[in-house]
């Protein structure tokens, strides 16, 4: 609850908070905005404003939706709840709810979609996947590795066929999609990774989860998926030496590794689970320390966007931008 209050009661705190408040403020005043985002996120924002929520309350509500979706996804067992507490919370929670609002919402929706894939509820998984991708397109990168591992090849063929048919039926829609992707690619190409060691923390975190799971998963077969996720993380780390996009991809595939652990931690025998949890606790502490360090980092003399923290009623305009 304290963590929820931190993002729910915040003022103009967080890297992208100002831009999202501006978007919602435009919806409230004009019904539309010159700023363009994914269609699902725009629809959600307009819906919240239509419900007569102020821009600030609407933005806080999106963070609350993300929190509830994560809790739903990780509530299947006590072990899964531990994974959320020890890994998702320190690594992603405040970024999901105070900074990367769109990707936080889309990743939490993607987690629900993957839950349905494991249950072989493909129709439901598809619906959740479409909603997730409509919030931010990078959710597709979270879902696709699991589709490749969990879905029968004939269903993948049907899915690809539907995409082709959809393109033939509405080329304009796909043009909009590719234009958005192109815009993101151009933006990332202008932002370079700040140092040679950029991305080392997510790589090491992913590697620790990979090694620890395989070590304690004795006597059980491991899916090829865990190896694929590690390879994608390593490739993204190399990519991060040349472009900021690599760092974003690292965050995607580290989340994939956490989701893989979530869905497989229950097969770890009782004799090993306590040792695994101890290691995850150490990893959690290290992640929290790194997060706190990043909060206090200054860039070009500017303080972190998280500091100084202000409540929304301390702003000149408490409910709007």
From TrEMBL:
Which top-rank group of organisms is this from? Bacteria
InterPro entries, sorted: EpsG-like
One Pfam family per UniProt:
EpsG
What's the name of the protein? EpsG family protein
Q: What is the lineage of its organism?
A: Bacteria, Pseudomonadati, Pseudomonadota, Gammaproteobacteria, Moraxellales
